[in-house]
Each structure stands twice: as structure tokens, then as C-alpha cells.
Amino acid sequence: MRLPRRHPKSSQIERDLARLADGTLQGRRRGRLEQLVARSPELRARLCAQRRAIAATRSLAELERAPLALHTQYRALISGRRRRRAPAAGLGLAAAAGALAWTIAALGGGQAALTVAQAATIAFRPATTAVAEPASDDHVALPGVQAAGMPFPYWEDRFGWHAAGARTDRLDGRELTTVFYRRGAERIAYTIVSGDSLPPAQATRTTVRAGTVLAESWSRGRPVVTWLRQGHTCVLSGDRGVPLGALAKLAGWRSHGELPF
Question: What is the pTM of this model?
């Protein structure tokens, strides 16, 4: 089993990572993979994502208040994972498990008054304050603007989206901090919602990027991507012409593997 120098994407490694995560990998294979994982931060992150997905799917079966349909999806995920060990199957499990766990958590707890769709409407509002640019191009976060102790990303040099302004709103007792970005005539809005996570929107698709579960949906004809960051809901919405995939790429970006945005 040989690990590529930069991007370990071997199908065998992915299959063994899945088996290591669920405890079915044994013998010399396990020992060799554990050595590789110990030397590779990327493999460690992928192993942690696999374990989180497995823990999430197992926890679903224990939630008695979960609707029957979700339990049926849970059993289908487990069954499908046992039949398929391909890399795409592992990533699909992580995405679906994360999305189901998020949905169950929202149904099992108290219903929050604020919704993702309402938070996404901030994108229609104008900016009220200016946003400073970083002092140098190697910065990954915008200076002087944070929400719940978390910075907002600097995307201009890497993706062509420059910060065009910000605003702060209060909806249903929650503070929502939004930074607007522009690229040509297009505009997107990145909102961080304070407090507990919001019930998820009805997702068109879920994906996993850098271990983060992203829920892609539409609100009033606009693309919306939501995810959790340190327990807070992040909402990234764009103009009608902005592709969902472009928003997902931004939402899943990790600056040099260090700061998840």
C-alpha cells in the first residue's frame, strides 16, 4: 500500500480508512495504516471524519423521537456502506449521516423560531459598515469583523470575491453578522447566526468538504449553503446566477488546512 506524496486518494487507502474507523481492519494492514495516519495530518482528518460519520449514524437508531422515515434512511445507509467500500461511498455516508444527524437534533430539541430561510433573507439587505482589507496577501481572514468569536474569510486573492461591506441584525433574539462579497456584478452574503444551531433547511444535496457537512438548498430562487461552525449555523447565499457548487467550494475551504470557515 503506497501513499502518494501530496494527495493520498488511493481507493485501497480509502477502503482501509473506512475499516479502521469501524474497527474491522485487523492484522498487518491495520498496523501499516496506523503508521501512515500517524505521519499524515490529512489522513488523520479523513479518519476523524469517517469516525464522526459512523458515530452519527449509530446515534440515530437510539433517538426514539426520530420519525420512522429517518430510521429507514439510517438502516439504508448502514446497509449500503456494508455493500460498498469505494471512496465515493465513504464520502456519501459522511454527508448523509451528518445531514440526518443534524435533522434529528433539530426535531428532537425545542423548535427554534428563526429558520435558515429567514437568515438567508439578510442577503437582500444592504451593507451598513465597511470592511477593511488584510494588511498583506498571505492573510486568510478579514480584520476587524467577527461573529461568536470567529473570523470571516478573506477570499479575494484565492477566489476573486472581495469583501464589500458588513451588517449586524437581530432576529428572534439572535444576533446575525453578515459580510457581503462581490465578484464583478455578482454578490454573495456570509451570515453567522449566534446561539444554538438552527433547524436545517430542506437540502437539495449534502456534501462533505474537509470534514464539514454542507447542506445545499434554494431560498426564493437563490442558492444557499449552510453548515455548522463551532456549533453555530453559517449561511452562505448568492445571487440567482451564482452556482451552488461555487458556494459549496467557498463554504468548504480551509485556509492552509488550519482555519475552517
Answer: 0.59
